[in-house]
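Budget justification note: compute hours in this period were largely spent on complex prediction jobs such as the one shown. Inputs:
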Amino acid sequence: MVDREAGRALLHGLGPVARGWRQAADGALAGLDVSGSAGWCLVHLDSVGAVPRQAELALLLEVSAPSLVRTLDQLQRAGWIERTVDPDDGRSNRVTLTPAGKTMAGQIQARLDALGDDLLAGLPAEAVEIGVELLQLLNLRLAEERVTRLSAQLGDG
Amino acid sequence: MVDREAGRALLHGLGPVARGWRQAADGALAGLDVSGSAGWCLVHLDSVGAVPRQAELALLLEVSAPSLVRTLDQLQRAGWIERTVDPDDGRSNRVTLTPAGKTMAGQIQARLDALGDDLLAGLPAEAVEIGVELLQLLNLRLAEERVTRLSAQLGDG
DNA sequence: TTTGATTAATTAGCTAACTAATCGAAATGG
DNA sequence: CCATTTCGATTAGTTAGCTAATTAATCAAA
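Corresponding output:
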């Protein structure tokens, strides 16, 4: 049985910590002319071997497709990615890093990793493992909850 | 030593889970005409015995003062809180729940608690404890990081 | 083969957070 | 005792997420 108070602390604490992390990430990338979310997108693009379509990339980054559109617009304006129409499917864009974008991705990754190392320094690995599992479970249950909620909405409306 | 991959999973996972939780909370409050953040504000107001000033309430809720202003505007329009100028300090507002607001706070708390119980059902209490401690530590380190970052900014700019 | 449904990306508009700048009130130093 | 500084709340403007609706392309089926 989970203590009511602890449960509240966990669920409420997520928001502020997530915001703090985003701000810290933005700060770590200051001077690179890239926001944290855009930077994270570059890093993922660099680490996946393949050339993903936008929808796949959105899944990977856990954001909605329209949110990704705006991020990619920024990255494209900056000359760090390119969108090319998939030859096999005229609806899809394939997203690739430009050489400049690849360089940038490396710098971003280095800075974010350094920040992450600082934040998590000295922690027992098990605690982090448990935290990750907790987040994964919550993600799963929230997804289920979302399904039931949206179904109910359909039933009502 | 924390595994690099696990660290990334933890830090990156915070955002999506926090968003999911907020959406689920909004869903749970559907029909009450109150957003999750405003509802959370009401619940806190109900649970603190005292009559806080806005700045104190912002600290408690871990949001900035301007963010709280908007939330309070909504709650005040709905007739659930009142702002009264502190007799001892003409700059400060004291925030109080109206009777209607108190009723509303009770309903909100019940729904959020039910949602929280569902999400955390069956979890070992220790895992939640560890999660909470992890969040608290991150909060602390992020606050420190923020200080050093803003100081550096001053030095530069 | 043409029509209808589905899918990918986009646009438009909303929300809730943030910072920076402003205004009035209080505190403080000369 | 006045001038300056500090402090609390607000306003204005930015950012990043979201949903809903649109457009274009593909797929399926009559």
